[in-house]
Design brief:
The structure holds three protein chains of three kinds. Chain A has helices spanning 17-24, 28-42, 45-53, 65-70, 77-90, 97-109, 127-140, 146-158, 166-183, 205-208, 212-224, 242-245, 248-264, 277-290, 302-311, 331-334, 340-350, 381-386, 389-398, 408-420, 430-437; strands at 198-201, 228-229, 269-272, 299-301, 325-327, 402-404, 426-428. By secondary structure, chain A is mainly alpha-helical. The termini of chain C are far apart. Classes of the chains: A mainly alpha, B mainly beta, C mainly alpha.
């Protein structure tokens, strides 16, 4: 009935040590045992109802950018479920190591868990959840792509994504503070300031590669007169690749550290940088594993925070960007939090010429980097970019040269697409736009 | 706190300093900190030339530094700050820097009486602790959480003892790189991960939450793992006032949490979540913050639940000194509350600080905030509002409260009889 | 022949209803208990408002983006499901049976309309079968069971149509028709036809998560 997943060969086999070595260690017994433990202990009514309800209509196909880019059925959401979960359930876990390797490739590198297909399925079947469960099984079997596994290890050892050591973190903040003080002498990145209104949290790559974003956030906070702090201890990183490898225990530990850091600082809310997947983990997924229905300390995504600052008049726009811009709606804050109208308010407030891309808002095509796919690293990059030609077409159709993308993974993914398809565009975060357009009160200037 | 017996409990009002005026002396002044006895108020200040100092009761430290952060008073009233000079970092205590300097210094901790001060250090990309100006002889690849015994004689830290190359995923999970170091001496056993840890009060035992491989969580005591493995664990604590080494930790099995002592469950009940287990000071009672069902939080004492649940958060679980009463912070529908023995105070706040019991346990006081104004509430009754305020301290006889507060830019040390609440 | 007719119309029909209703209730109740036992947290997120919002957007033709992008499929699905449900309930000959047995009767469709509607159901089943053959993304996930479900669904309408027009021996056709109808009802709890009941719950849950937690539209 189902075509065994192993028959579908990669166009060009990509070698990933994590998968090869992981699969080589597997035995049929272990696979069966682990899968059945997941089936009995972790899967329940939702999975059963989803699998029993799916009428195999294929209507989810055109939701998926992989399918729209490749056009063949194995890329459709239901096609991926068929190659993985259906087979696993039908065979009751009696599948081969080779199958598990292929299932891991499908779940980890051919699905961004962007949830667009849930919006295309007449039943609203949560295919992302099914794929995440496949990843969970692969995690428990030790067959996860090397780079994202390394990232999960970093989370476990340091509570951040990038092996940033505790001193490096604080040192980076002090370095950015020093730099920014040249522009704004009164600026301060207050570390561990108990009782501040806001704890600002970021993702590991910010101190590692994009420290200017911390600089910019400090400028914005100071200009807006916000009482804010950043933690000097682990818990500053809101990101979470363990959520995407299926290491839910580690996901819980990371989220606990983040929330308890905020609780200990007695802040009223957490504002986080322009990251999508971290928002998903903090707002929607990680908290649940710990038993919190909603985040125990409110979590505000940067875009919503900027929107509120503008609305309340705490920051003002001095000049608008003249160049035409378009906006990419990141899945985790649009399908994940409905921030699309606030973002449009921001674009219109800061840019003179806003060109929508189509489709947009909840219907927007994914960047193909999120959901942990970009974190699977260089071996998978070409495939990831080739799997999103639809995005290249969508971007090109806007005819503009600036794309605002308020999410780190989207940023990386779109940059790769722009370079590969030679789109003559560049991406900006909202904070980049604000730095160019925002009014800096004279009293704060150097 | 035995120290508090020596404090001045008679002067009802003392104007210590006026921090709002310090701005005229310095280019910038940061937020103030106060000593435990309330006699000192201090803040990090930046001079016009860009150097940093600490301003204590209006007087600047003699030395200035290139950079300074983490200003903290110890329990004995000494003021510490992490300072840098010529690119090297150290700890300054009451204005005097330690002789030893390091590439980096952070995470200051004090023992109970404040005589022992420890910091994490990094030197030549090697990591460890420095205690009272003495760095550990052995340094490591990295350092995680650390704890010290109340007497300050023992420090235990999670340390990365084995180097790890880029993306060495199999080495990390199969061979492990982390262990525990006690006073700088690492256990032989290496684990995949080591997180929270605790020392027995006498310093003879150390327990840590560990992971072996990616799936097996347990507690390791003195380098030996519990034979029982779990789906997850949280940090252990030792039961006080016993000569036995009784490491107690939340453990997760079949998707539910409970508490285990030395690997064996101690409570029949299982929870959606269970953490922050706390023993009463005499070690007889064991309480923990639990979620009996999804999204509902409360406290369990010896396995029995408080009658009230809260839908957002319960935190800062605190036993009274006699162990008969228990208070915590709760958050419900967006409001912060103080809960004592399961009953929340009627008032709701924008923020609350950990509740403090009087020595006999009969009264509870807490710093609270509403609409940007702070006050102390005693048994739920608020005192007057202030601009800034620190946690209350009861007098040894429990009849007065030390209130350290800022009003109109002035820092006052006040002794307030409890009848005034 | 009369004996067989009496049997399929009498005891077998009772049995059919018992299996259909009992089986469906069993599926729903067992799912409810499984949910309560292992995924109890789901109830914390259920919202009546967003459940209804989601369901409404998916039972109104062209109310979702995907429906607008696939007009033929949308029309076929809606027409099919409407005819599938309405025809047997409002067919005069079925109402006569209700009247005879239970003294219950209600408005009936004119026979010629019912006739067309039966043809629509059969035609839609043929359409769906072709779709499964022609569209690669559908063919890829199609198994024999999917055709079997279409056959089970079409059979009562084919036999009913033939019986009504009496082109083949009426009695035999009628018995076959009743058997086919009974087969379909019995199949519902045990096949993916259970989507008839599950639809409301999966939509309600997805609608609640999208609306209540994620503040986004799911259509």
């Amino acid at each position: 009935m189902a075509v065994p997943a192993t028959k579908l060969k990669e166009k060009k086999e990509i070698i990933d040590v994590g998968l090869e070595e992981g699969a080589a260690r597997l035995t049929y017994e272990r696979i069966e045992q682990v899968i059945n433990r997941v089936i009995t202990a972790e899967m329940a009514a939702r999975m059963k109802v989803y699998v029993d309800t799916c009428i195999h209509c294929g209507l989810c196909s055109t939701a998926c950018h992989y399918y729209l880019s490749h056009g063949t059925p194995e890329w459709a959401p239901v096609g991926k479920v068929k190659q993985t979960m259906w087979e696993i359930l039908e065979k009751k876990g009696k599948v081969s190591p080779e199958f598990i390797k292929r299932a891991s490739i499908i779940a980890s590198t051919e699905c961004n868990v962007c949830r667009r297909c849930s919006m295309y399925c007449p039943y609203g079947i949560d295919v992302a959840y099914i794929m995440a469960t496949v990843r969970r099984i692969c995690h428990l079997l030790g067959v996860t792509p090397q780079y994202i596994q390394d990232t999960a290890h970093s989370h476990s050892a340091t509570m951040n994504q990038m092996w940033v050591k505790e001193d490096e973190w604080i040192d980076t903040l002090q370095w950015q503070e020093g730099e920014a003080q040249a522009e704004m002498p009164s600026l301060r990145i207050a570390l561990d300031k108990e009782g501040a209104d806001i704890m600002y949290s970021v993702i590991g790559p910010e101190p590692k590669f994009r420290a200017q974003l911390i600089y910019q956030a400090a400028i914005l906070m100071t200009a807006a007169g916000v009482d804010w702090t950043m933690p000097a201890s682990p818990g500053w990183d809101n990101s979470d690749m363990a959520m995407f490898t299926g290491d839910f225990e580690m996901m819980g530990r990371i989220k606990r550290t983040h929330f308890e850091t905020a609780a200990k600082l007695r802040v009223k809310k957490i504002v986080m940088g322009e990251c999508g997947h971290a928002f998903r983990s903090v707002y929607d997924v990680g908290n649940r594993w710990l038993g919190w229905k909603m985040p125990p300390i409110p979590v505000i995504h940067a875009t919503q925070f900027y929107y509120e600052l503008l609305k309340e008049g705490k920051i003002k726009i001095a000049r608008k960007l003249k160049e035409p811009v378009t906006l990419h709606d990141p899945c985790n804050i649009v399908r994940g939090r409905g921030l699309h109208e606030m973002m449009r308010y921001l674009v219109n407030a800061t840019c003179e010429n806003f060109v929508e891309m189509y489709p947009n808002r909840e219907q927007n095509h994914c960047c193909c980097a999120g959901g942990g796919v970009i974190n699977c690293g260089p071996p998978w990059k070409t495939k990831r970019v080739e799997s999103n030609s639809i995005k290249a077409e969508q971007l090109a159709a806007t005819g503009v040269h600036i794309c605002i993308a308020p999410c780190h993974n989207c940023h990386g993914g779109l940059e790769d697409i722009i370079n590969t398809y030679k789109l003559n565009m560049h991406t900006m975060f909202f904070i980049d736009v604000l730095m160019k357009t925002m009014e800096i009160p004279d009293a704060l200037k150097a | 706190m035995s120290e508090s017996k020596k404090w001045d409990w008679d002067t009802s009002e003392e104007l210590i300093a006026t921090p709002s005026e310090w701005k005229t002396k310095f280019a910038r002044v940061q937020e103030p900190y106060v000593s435990p006895d309330g006699k000192k108020v201090a803040a990090i200040a930046r001079n016009e030339d860009g150097t940093y100092t600490a301003c204590v009761n209006g007087e600047a430290w003699e030395n200035t530094y290139e950079n300074m952060w983490n200003l903290r008073f110890g329990p004995d009233g000494r003021l510490t700050a992490i300072v840098s000079e010529a690119g090297e970092w150290t700890l300054a205590v009451d204005g005097v820097p330690w002789e030893n300097k390091f590439a980096y210094v952070w995470d200051t901790k004090f023992n109970e009486d404040g005589q022992t001060i420890a910091v994490k250090i990094q030197q030549d990309t090697r990591y460890g602790l420095a205690v009272n100006d003495q760095p550990w002889e052995n340094l490591f690849e990295h350092i995680g959480k650390y704890v010290m015994t109340p007497d300050g004689q023992y420090m235990a830290a999670a340390v990365q003892a084995v180097p790890l190359g880029q993306a060495e995923v199999f080495k990390f999970k199969d061979e492990g790189t982390w262990t525990v170091a006690v006073n700088g001496n690492a256990w032989e056993k290496i684990f995949t991960n080591v997180w929270g840890l605790d020392c027995s009060p006498d310093g003879k035992h150390v327990a840590a939450e560990v992971r072996m491989g990616l799936y097996d969580y347990t507690i390791a005591m003195d380098g030996e793992m519990w034979p029982e493995k779990f789906n997850c664990v949280w940090e252990p604590v030792f039961r006080p006032k016993t000569s036995e080494a009784l490491a107690t930790a939340p453990v997760r099995a079949a998707g539910k949490w409970t508490l285990a002592v030395n690997g064996k469950p101690v409570w029949d009940s299982k929870f959606v979540q269970c953490w922050h287990q706390t023993y009463s000071p005499d070690g007889r009672k064991l309480a923990a913050i639990v979620a009996p069902s999804f999204g509902q939080w409360t406290v369990a004492i010896d396995g029995k639940l408080w009658a009230t649940t809260f839908n957002e958060l319960v935190t800062d679980l605190t036993f009274s000194p006699d162990g008969n009463r228990l208070a915590a912070i709760a958050k419900d529908d967006g409001h912060w509350k103080i809960v004592v023995d399961g009953t929340p105070w009627p008032a709701m706040y924008d923020m609350v600080w950990p509740p403090v019991f009087s020595p006999d346990g009969s009264k509870v006081a807490s710093k609270v905030e509403k609409g940007g104004k702070y006050t102390i509430a005693l048994n739920g009754k608020p005192w007057r509002e202030c601009e800034a305020l620190w946690n209350p301290v009861f007098s040894p006889d429990g009849k007065k409260v030390l209130v350290r507060c800022i009003e109109d830019g002035k820092y006052y040390r006040r002794i307030v009889p409890i009848s005034e609440f | 022949m009369q004996g067989i007719y009496e049997f399929v119309r009498g005891p077998l029909l009772w049995l059919t209803f018992i299996v259909f209703i009992g089986g469906s209730l069993y599926r729903l109740i067992s799912m409810y208990y499984l949910l309560k036992k292992k995924e109890r947290w789901v109830f914390n997120y259920m919202s009546l408002k967003y459940s209804l919002r989601s369901i409404l957007h998916w039972i109104i033709p062209f109310a979702s983006a995907n429906m607008r992008q696939r007009p033929i499929m949308t029309v076929m699905s809606f027409v099919f499901h409407i005819c599938l449900l309405v025809t047997p309930v409002f067919l005069l000959s079925h109402i006569v049976l209700w009247d005879e047995s239970w003294n219950l009767s209600w408005w009936a469709l004119p026979d010629w309309i019912a006739d067309i509607m039966a043809l629509v159901v059969i035609g839609a089943c043929v359409f769906f079968a072709f779709r499964r053959q022609i569209l690669p993304e559908v063919k890829y996930v199609t198994s024999v069971a999917d055709y079997a479900i279409l056959a089970i669904t079409a059979a009562p309408f084919i036999t009913g149509f033939l019986a009504y027009h009496q082109w083949i021996e009426y009695r035999t056709m009628l018995i076959l028709h009743i058997l086919a109808g009974e087969a379909m009802l019995v199949a519902i709890p045990f096949t993916r036809l259970i989507h008839m009941f599950y639809f409301w719950f999966t939509r309600a849950y997805t609608g609640s998560e999208f609306g209540g937690v994620r503040h986004a539209r799911d259509w």
